[in-house]
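Anyone able to model this chain together with guanosine-5'-diphosphate?
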Amino acid sequence: MAHWQSDLDQGIDYMFKIVLIGDSGVGKSQLLARFARNEFNSKSKATIGVEFQTKTVLMDHKVVRAQIWDTAGQERYQAVTTAYYRGAIGALLVYDITKHDTFDHVERWLEELRMHSDKNILVMLVGNKCDLGSLRAVPVEEAKELAQRQGLFFMETSALDSTNVEPAFLGLLSQIYVSIRKEPL
Ligand code: GDP
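re: yes, here you go
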């Protein structure tokens, strides 16, 4: 039976590894900074040299620690390694709603993800920079159609003004939680 843990560091019930993928410049690092530290374009550059950030959330009275990995620019050199994907149970696949080519590459990212991780990995497709609506190049319907066809969750976000950042991360985490609870012990 679950019991209350007063010290989150001492009592983690679940640890979920999540990876951020998508083209360079779509806003992966800023989404993570916004979710993990509520920062945007921080001068502290706290992410340099750090491979992942953690965020602890309560779900259904369970302490869930998300370990969220950022590519730290590796994708620029097409060098996202197998180790990056290893053990990942969920992914945020990010494109930029103002750059259609970043959306065109989504299925390639998905293929790579499914090749290197559990093929049932849960994926949240994220159309970022929705604050730049006047520059929109990817219609919402086009993204929804892809998400439905590929079995992905979908949300548009803005790391700049915080729109949907928590719902995107927490939505993915809760779907993972639900899927894990369904598995036999
Ligand atoms: P990454 O290469 O995918 O990690 O992308 P970054 O997080 O480094 O962001 C690339 C650029 O996009 C930076 O100049 C950010 O300030 C900008 N950016 C990131 N997210 C947003 C957003 O939601 N809205 C706007 N307008 N700019 C963003």
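Strands lie at 14-21, 52-59, 62-69, 90-96, 122-128, 153-156.
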